[in-house]
Design brief:
single chain, about 260 residues, alpha/beta, TIM Barrel, eight-stranded parallel beta sheet, 11 helices, 8 strands, globular, binds zinc ion
Amino acid sequence: MNIYTDCHVHTELSYCAEQGLTPQFYVEKLKSLSEPGAVCITNHGMALYFPGEIAWKWEFITDSAVFDKWLDSGNKKLSEHIREVRGIACPKLFVGIEVEMMNDGRLTFDPCFRDDLDIIIGSVHFLPVSAPCEDTRRRWLEHTLKLINSGIDILGHPFRWIRAQMPVREEDVRTVVLEAQLAGVALELNSHYLIDTDISMLRLAAELSAKIAIASDSHKKEDFGDYSYHKKVIKQSGVNFKNLALYKFSKRISSVKGRVY
Ligand SMILES: [Zn+2]
Ligand SMILES: [Zn+2]
């Protein structure tokens, strides 16, 4: 594993990503990296399961009945997506998903796909509270700790949402890193939005032996293949790269053919 193993990129299936961003783009781009790399396509569960107008309302976060309503059509879309990516003969191309946790603790994908996906990323994109106050912080932390223990492999951009609300306390970074370590969940070093908690997260991950996942979270073609932020922030943290436990993502599916659904 090296810094060119990108755990988190999107294709045009995600509503927030650039049109023309396809699995084939990543296959071609991998060939031009200066070191051997790998990439896992992790589109949003909300884009696979809901039409755009439903997804962006975020109602499914507080009312998981919305998810159940769209379950069958979402399963069909996810199944077709997995089959498309597995159909590409590139051993460095993986397929996962980026999901949120709903009010009843379920993730926004059908768990019957768990073994067919290489990586499950759990992220916070929306919570039904937003104000720079103690209640917001408490509810975010409670949600995040539950998300870590929901069966995910990677906690996506761990402090992005709370940082958009308020400064993040060092004690909260420690709590999240420790919980991730105990659950065997990797913490994502994400270069899509730059967060000022990344340095303390890296130091604590090294101290507590928590896993770190390298991610560009690419939404545009130009986002992919540049890991200069990751290199820079690791250097600034003073942590020796060799001492970081990097997340390895070939554990579930090694066959490029995959299953037939
Ligand atoms: Zn995200
Ligand atoms: Zn993402």
